[in-house]
Design brief:
This protein has 1154 residues and is an alpha+beta fold. The protein folds into 5 domains: 3-208, no CATH class; 214-339; 365-480 and 576-741, Rossmann fold (3-Layer(aba) Sandwich), CATH 3.40.50; 860-1081, no CATH class; 1091-1153, Arc Repressor Mutant, subunit A (Orthogonal Bundle).
Length: 1154
Amino acid sequence: MPADEAAHQSPEAFIRYWSDKGGSERANYQKFINQLCALIGTAEPEASSEQDALNNYVYEKRVRALDLEGDDGRNNYLDCYKRDCFVLEAKQSRKRQRGGQEGGDLFGGLPHSPPPAGTRPSWDRLMRQARAQAERYAKALPTDHGWPPFLIVVDVGHVIETYADFTGLGKAYMPFPDSRSHRIRLADLADPEIRARLKAIWEAPKSLDPSARRAEVTRDIAQRLARLAQSLEKRYEPKQVALFLMRCLFTAFAQNVGLLPDGAFTGVLNDARPNPQFLPRYLEPFWRSMDTGSDHDTTIRARVRHFNGGLFREAEALALDEQEIGELIAACSRDWKNVEPAIFGTLLENALSKRERSQYGAFFTPRAYVERLVVPAVIEPLMAEWRNAQVIAETARQKNDHAQAIKQIKDFHQKLCSVKILDPACGSGNFLYVALEKMKALEGEVIATLEEIGGGTQANLDLAGHTVGPHQLLGLEKNPRAVPIAELVIWIGHLQCHLRQRGPESLSEPILHSYDNIRQCDAVLTWDRVEPMLDEAGQPRVKWDGVSWKTDPFTGQEVPDESRTVPLQRHIGAKPADWPQADYIVGNPPFIAGKDLRAELGDGYAEALRKAYPQMPGGADFVTYWWDKAAELVRKGAAKRFGFITTNSITQTFSRRVIQRHLDANTPLYLTFAVPDHPWADGQGAAAVRVAMTVGALVEHDERTGLLKTVVREGTSPDNDGAVSVELKPFTGIVRSDLTVGADIASAKPLASNGKISSRGVSLHGAGFLVTPAQARALGLGRIAGLEERIREYRNGRDLTGRSRALMVIDLFGMTEAEVRQKYPDVYQWLLDRVKPERDSNSRQSYRENWWIFGEPRKEMRRALCGQFRYISTVETAKHRLFQFLEKIILPDNMLVNIAIGEEYALGVLSSKIHVKWSLAAGGWLGVGNDPRYNKTRCFDTFPFPNATPHQKRVIGRLAEELDAHRKRVLAEHPDQLTLTELYNVLEKGRSREELTAREMEIYQLGQVGVMLDLHSRIDHAVADAYGWPADLEDARILENLVALNAERHREERDGLVRWLRPDYQNPKGQGAAVQIAATLDIAADTAKRIVWPKAPTEQVHSLMAALNRCGRAVEAESLARQFKGARSPRVKELLDILVSVGHARQINNLYAP
């Protein structure tokens, strides 16, 4: 039957035609797929192009996979592929490889007719093998294609199986839509819903993502309830409101899914709407019936099932007005069967004030981001254990020991049902719910396997009390409003999973259980009691609350309202909090920077925290306390793996030290998965912060290889779930503490040669220090002698990269309060009115007492600038990494990093590609704009300058001087038309040869950007020559060389040779640097350590798969056996053969590969 004929025939005719065909014809699979495409109304695959990059929807898509004979890879062919949609493997196909060689036939030797109801073990086993092969080929796709959301396995003319992973990680392909309905038999194609599902897989696969489909309706519900919560909290305590709304939410859900009579809850609300004061009188007895069960509830006049669970134990109903009841009725009218429980975090976040959100560090985590972490932290290791259990079961089955095969599967199921997941900052329970849903999907696959081999049904397992459920989820949460939300999210999610598969009547009573697994507590600190701090008179100490302001009646300025205070408290008996035992730890701890701990959590709490955790660096972010505790538990064997979402500043100096300590420990961790820099949006749809994701596990058998994913493209705005879409590029290797793979930049040590000459600028701690030139003149500048040294030009980052504000600053460093008052009374009064009120409320004694001096006046910087007429400056966090000279008279702001060198040679080296690449890799990224940060300790102090000859220094210096002068000249000539950022925006476009807009062309001409490009190119070549490296050296090699050179310089300095950058200042009594010693990368020889062969069969499979992955090429069984102490080659070969038979390994001749 031609394809065009199939397009016009009925599904029944299609089914009848293919019922007589199928596997008897080797070439049938393309014909089958073509006609299937016509049937579901989508285009069939296109003809292949000689340019394989264009083959995005074709048969026989070529990919490169590991060559089993050990070379750099051979061609393999996907049966059918559609980019961003699916990889399809046809059961009856043969895999063609280069040179015309064919790979093994996955299904050779099987009868061509399908097995009865798909239950024959050999048929099921080989379908699983085809699935594994599809996954392996998906992994071999070009990196820029990413992981397709679907895998399809086709037994031509008989069965289509579909598997999905919407996370983009390729780590958790699960039967779709579930384990009971992922297998589409030929006869099922008569169902229009099945055909519509297949069409969506072909054309819009992401539309099938359950969380995406449910997000819009759920967000509407959450926003309504958030408004209601904010309204009610004006009259009731927050916890009262939270519990009341939780009861309302669950009651609406129960009504909608058939656990309550249709319209029961809505009817109660409608009855009360004309007389809102009667609502509690209606609801409370109804909720008491839900708590205990009732054969005839008097409110709804019908039977009410026994719910229990603690949610309705306290049946208090709040009095609502008519409008508030209307909001509840509107929410009840939505489709609660498909509500997304994880999104109810918005209910919590939207109800929090900005101040509360800051204190709790609370940000709702979009579902897509939760999955991106939960899969590698929890589900991936569980699926690996499931794979191991399958291999051992298959070993027993091939020996006709069916009882042992069933036991292996049941043992894994029992283990799966006893796994404990802890979220120690659980918020509204999103991570726990998503983990539960993924575990339920895995359980479905396990049960389907049990049913296939005659090991029982879901109903039997339920009766035995073995099922994945909320009892496995543990949470810690400080916010009382979040605790009931988390419990509700988990129960709704659990019931949805159950109801989708089995219906409401299958639920036994009581429907809910009270496990009390979500505890309201502080997750990192506990204490015996809190006492007020007292002053010398024995009175409680207080401080300004940090948020209340008033207008000064004399100056009209906004100043702190000192009458609005908070007490200072001391935590007595503070110590680290204990966490409940759990196998996996996952979550999104509070986003509070280390520098903000006192302001956000209070002085007493911050001090107690430091004392309870003496091992923590002083400036570490709050989240690292969670990271440290989880890492310690994993290293001690109390947990298996952990994963956290943190701010991306975790790679900065103090926070990174926490990670590094655990990576370097005697019992070390390694990072199995990381995303160093990921966009974020808050629960209200606005951009918030940049985040990182990390997953840690214990190093086993010296295995440290992890997966790093970097964002290469991101959307411009959040979707309905609050998530910004991203495209991730994977890299494998050892993931360092700075969340990079490749050169170990984090290992670079500060060099004495660079010491004492870099500093951040001054930190004012009082906007009253800033004055305009006119204000400066009014204060006496130009008429009072000596004031020209005390009121100076001032620059911050925007002044340098944008348009200068031309501000000046009052700098009284070195003067006493009396000297200022007597010598410059006008200046004194200015600061008395504008700075002192704010300083009086500061918690730091030195800031209060020295109120007329900058908070951080930078003594060391002032000392280093002595004798210099200029210095080099760069903006700490900026889009482009630029360096320029500033005159010594200019005082730099705290957000400028300054190098006290006036030599143009140093400016040239710092402006070169080599240094810029180093600074980008070492410094990290910050802010909503995700701009690179120049951390002086990591970027400058560790950077090894070249040992240039005098001639090389002159060449580099002349070019740098010319570049600096050129930029300043064009900016001075066109102050209203050009900024430094605009110049470099256009310069970067010029480097990448992008087309310029009309405005960019104007900037190019006015700024003579072509000249800048040429000068930068010349500087790059000259600096590379000074290092003795090729000018076109690739970025990765530049970083490797610099790491090696840093190590070499560090060894030199340890032996007494220091190559000072400013020897007259840094080492005035010493000698200059000697000749340069050639840098070499010291790579220790790899000494293979033999691993003890485990006794447990599942551990043997685990160790064998790890060894196979480590090899990086195909090997013989005997070679693998030699990597273990006590392993016998026949047993290793037996397990390898089973791994091949179930699709987890490959074999040609006597070689095996993953």
